[in-house]
Design a protein that fits this description.
Order of helices and strands: EHHHEHHH
Strand content: 5-15%
Keywords: Membrane, Transmembrane, Transmembrane helix
Number of helices: 6
Transmembrane segments: 12-29, 41-64, 84-117, 124-146
Organism: Futiania mangrovi
Strand order of the largest sheet: 1-2
Protein name: Tripartite tricarboxylate transporter TctB family protein
Structural class: mainly alpha
Radius of gyration: 21 Å
Distance between the termini: 58 Å
Domain DUF1468: 14-149
Amino acid sequence: MSRLRLRAPSWGHLAFIGAAAAFLIWYFLDAYGASSRLENLMLIAPATAIGLGLCLFLAAAEFVTVEGAAPRTALPAVDPRVPLFMALLAAYVAALVYDLGFDVASFLFLAASLWVLGERRPTLLVVFPAVFTVLIVLGMQELLSIPVPTLLFDDM
């Protein structure tokens, strides 16, 4: 049976976690100082809370190890899909910059990402990106009141 045991932490990891937590706190306080309205903090406050919770979890994990666990093996080779996905993300940002529209760019990015990650069913490659695109465009425009440039959904 494996048990948890205390160990010496990696101070570099702890410093990085501390820097991330400090950034999260600074960003929240800066946003709160700019405007304490719900619309401004609706996404920032929960993201900050989740981020700080993860920082606490990771910091605590630095001090314990599992006794009897298998030793760490070498890192696997880079998955060839990772560079493809990075290129897709760059193309998505470029499409947004060059006015393809948030809706069309999001649909194409989601469909291509699903394909790169192994999805081959045509129905899913069309339906999921279409539904998700409509939801995020409506969410950005109606719930957050953020005007996003769209190509197909100008009347939404």
